[in-house]
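Q: I have 154 residues here and want to know how they pack in 3D. Can you give me a structure?
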Amino acid sequence: MGLRAGQRGYTYLLVLFLVAGMGLFVARTGVVWQQVTQREREAELIAIGAEMARALASYARETPVGTPSRPTELAQLVEDKRWPTPRRHLRKVYRDPMTGTTEWGVERDGNAILGVHSLSTQAPIRRDGFPPELGDVAASAAGYAEWVFRPVVD
């Protein structure tokens, strides 16, 4: 009629193992998904950082005589008021994909901005294949805050 007591015990044990196996699978999938997401955000950080470094180079290259060749604020890359008609070196101050804010770390010489970096201290996954705006230091960086994007000097 029904299962004997011994058979019910095996079925219960089988269900326990099945649930434990599914839990491990879901946990592993979560770790892989997190790494995929981090790699996507890294790629976005590299693209945005390189674009900001190119904007710094454009700002310096298009400097009118007698004016500073480096901006003091990132907003000056969006609207360069050193000309009678303001120029745009950058469409907007992009959000940092690692922190989700438009606040960036800046490397300065006095007030002048030399480079930008993320404020995230999270350890990067990527270790090679960096654009020239990042330089050679990025490969050994312990955190994204050490990835400083600077204009490439020709």
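Q: Anything worth noting?
A: The CA atoms of residues 120 and 144 lie 6 Å apart. The helical segments are 5-61, 75-78.
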